[in-house]
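> example.struct
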């Protein structure tokens, strides 16, 4: 979906396909047929943006077989789909029964991460629509905090990898005329947990094609205020390459038994749900929701937020809610000012099948309905900010 900002800029809105498990190219093509095209049809649009997730094996197939890449591009066009952004954070196995810490490997101290991200940038340059010259890829925020924090060589290794990546992106732009930018995606528990944490390593690299992907669920979970966070990035000259529109789970009164019981329904074995609270001395947190509920280490006199991407349009029932107001405030700064701070927006609710059983979609049709409803909400927020939806 495309929108015209009042300044004349085109802003792209997509939804991320990491909600649909697929490790192979055949699986990706099935996603386009079974999920993405039905969502487009529900929205009544001739064209729908998707933030494509390509697992390492699927990406290798496309890299090694130019005819397969051409066929994928043709299929996207045939189904009324377009790709201007890729989710390069998960490397493989994102549809596994247990993901947890595995999603952070390989990290930016390992050569596989540089090779994979370089490959994704090259693939995206080939998949961009003919009338689009800029693409974005979101990626791991360097590493999970351990053992990175105790390895004296880790920061230097990651920095060198990103410098090399920047050089490759420059070469790619010269060869193709397509500018691909990479965004580190701050996430609780990682080396770069907040947007503030991103400023030092990115200014040290100093490359205008390497910036931040702002995920509004992560922003909210870390209790970052959108205005000051985005202002600090802008002051530091760190670009917001893309933003992921997502909301976290919010519990206003976590000391109450009924609130803890409601939260327990979201503690599940597949993904990490880092949980944070804001105390007088700053944020405190656990690495997973069950640790917060049963570990006895997280203060419960102030609200809790958990890294659980709940559907944008369907907050959980009381006594819980979502951080949709944080998303709205962030989007107002990202797209509602005199110029947009980013041109790529991506709805990223990948946890539909991790929701409590009574909230999960039971059919493909129900999932498509839910994704279309999320995109409708995002579209309405953008038009309320003065952007005009384009055909």
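> example.seq
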């Amino acid at each position: 979906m495309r929108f015209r900002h009042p300044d004349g800029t085109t802003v792209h809105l997509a939804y991320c396909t990491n909600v649909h498990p697929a490790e192979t190219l055949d699986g990706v093509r099935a996603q386009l047929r079974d999920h993405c095209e039905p969502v487009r049809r529900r929205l009544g649009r001739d064209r729908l943006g998707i933030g494509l997730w390509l697992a390492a094996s699927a990406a290798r197939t496309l890299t090694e077989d130019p005819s397969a890449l051409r066929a994928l591009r043709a299929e996207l066009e045939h189904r009324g789909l377009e790709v201007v952004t890729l989710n390069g954070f998960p490397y493989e196995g994102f549809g596994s029964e247990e993901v947890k810490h595995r999603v952070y490997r390989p990290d930016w101290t390992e050569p596989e991460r540089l090779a994979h991200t370089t490959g994704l940038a090259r693939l995206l340059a080939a998949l961009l629509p003919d009338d689009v010259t800029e693409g974005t890829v979101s990626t791991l925020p360097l590493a999970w905090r351990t053992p990175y924090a105790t390895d004296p060589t880790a920061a230097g290794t990651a920095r060198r990898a990103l410098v090399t990546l920047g050089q490759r992106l420059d070469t790619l732009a010269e060869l193709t005329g397509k500018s691909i930018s990479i965004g580190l995606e701050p996430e609780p528990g990682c080396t770069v947990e907040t947007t503030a944490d991103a400023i030092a390593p990115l200014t040290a690299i100093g490359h205008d094609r390497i910036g931040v992907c702002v995920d509004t669920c992560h922003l909210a979970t870390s209790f970052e205020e959108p205005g000051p966070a985005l202002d600090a990035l802008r002051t530091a000259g760190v670009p917001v390459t893309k933003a992921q529109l997502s909301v976290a789970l919010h519990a206003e009164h976590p000391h109450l038994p009924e609130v803890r019981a409601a939260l327990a329904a979201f503690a599940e074995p597949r993904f990490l749900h880092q949980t944070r609270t804001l105390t007088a001395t700053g944020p405190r947190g656990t690495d997973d929701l069950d640790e917060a509920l049963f570990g006895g280490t997280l203060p419960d006199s102030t609200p809790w937020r958990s890294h659980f991407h709940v559907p944008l349009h369907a907050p959980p029932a009381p006594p819980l809610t979502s951080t949709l107001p944080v998303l709205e405030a962030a989007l107002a700064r990202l797209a509602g000012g005199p110029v947009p701070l980013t041109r790529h927006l991506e709805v990223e609710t990948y946890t539909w099948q991790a929701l409590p059983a009574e909230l999960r979609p039971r059919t493909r049709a129900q999932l498509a309905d839910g994704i279309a409803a999320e995109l409708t909400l995002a579209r309405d927020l953008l038009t309320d900010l003065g952007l005009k939806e384009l055909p």
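> remarks
The first strand starts at residue 2 and ends at 4.
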